Inverse folding.
């Protein structure tokens, strides 16, 4: 008997009503999740189920809930998920990426690193950051530009990668300037992946990855102030953490900030200007923007 196929159920609804619709479709599914599509406005409710779901019952349940909430009936998508060889798929979806002087590739890449480029081997994993996302690529381009003007080798101690994810930015900094890098993330899996990527790239002697809650992580205070801080997080945490970033950033130091949409730029810039930092560069990558600020 063949294994049951996987089906997907999805609909976009107002943020405030996402939990109610998740519960409505979740009764028919093996797993359900919600994702923000538009900040403070629209969320995607997505569920998966093995075996074809009861389509008429699902449609009726969503329609009844929408009517009870006084909403237009949302479009309900129900479809079979095609079978995929996920290992091959992830490799095809992660071709080598060039961002300035950096050449990001996975272990499956059979070619060498181009002459003059800095190779960063980062396999697709459970932590964020393989270089293809606009915010990560923007950060690499920012580091490439800073490398032309910034010398970290004159007694400035370590650099800091806040919210390190896969460790790709910590790797780029360590390989470019050959300085110690403190890498911090609240997610233990990100810390594990960063340590592994540091080992693979032979940078484990320079990169120290630790888990903790942002700037409150003890290792951060022990190694500052920093001449360079990278933070590829999200707009709201970046703005909220601006006072702590200023405290850890050395006078004349640079901060590379990312994880924000273009429409969130002014909020993040203003939060850091209030702390005495000034904008020296912005790198748009599609809907994402990377900011370079200087104290």
């Amino acid at each position: 008997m063949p294994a049951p196929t996987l089906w997907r159920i999805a609909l976009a609804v107002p943020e405030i009503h996402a939990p109610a619709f998740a519960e409505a479709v979740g009764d028919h599914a093996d797993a359900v999740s919600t994702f923000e599509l538009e900040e403070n406005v629209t969320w995607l409710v997505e569920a998966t189920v093995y075996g074809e779901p009861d389509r008429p019952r699902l449609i009726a349940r969503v329609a009844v809930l929408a009517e009870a909430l006084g909403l237009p009936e949302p479009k309900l998508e129900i479809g079979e998920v095609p079978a995929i060889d996920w290992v091959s798929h992830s490799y095809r979806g992660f071709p080598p990426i060039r961002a300035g002087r950096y050449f990001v590739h996975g272990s499956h890449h059979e070619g060498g690193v181009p002459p003059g480029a800095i190779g960063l081997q980062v396999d697709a994993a459970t932590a964020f950051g393989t270089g293809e996302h606009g915010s990560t690529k923007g950060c690499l381009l920012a580091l490439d530009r800073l490398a032309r003007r910034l010398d970290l080798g004159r007694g400035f101690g370590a650099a800091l990668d806040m919210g390190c994810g896969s460790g790709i930015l910590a790797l780029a900094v360590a390989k470019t300037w050959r300085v110690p890098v403190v890498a911090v993330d609240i997610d233990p899996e990100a810390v594990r992946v960063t340590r592994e990527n540091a080992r693979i790239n032979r940078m484990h002697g320079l990169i120290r990855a630790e888990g903790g809650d942002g700037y409150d992580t003890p290792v951060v205070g022990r190694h500052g102030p920093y001449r360079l801080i990278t933070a590829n997080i999200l707009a709201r945490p970046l703005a909220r953490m601006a006072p702590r970033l200023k405290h850890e950033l050395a006078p004349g130091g640079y901060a590379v900030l990312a994880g924000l949409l273009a429409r969130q730029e002014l909020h993040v810039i203003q939060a850091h200007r209030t702390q005495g930092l000034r904008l020296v560069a912005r790198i748009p990558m599609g809907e994402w923007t990377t900011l370079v600020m200087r104290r």
Remarks:
- Residues 85-92 have pLDDT under 50 and may be disordered.
- Residues 30 and 114 are 46 Å apart (CA to CA).
- The first helix runs from residue 18 to 26.
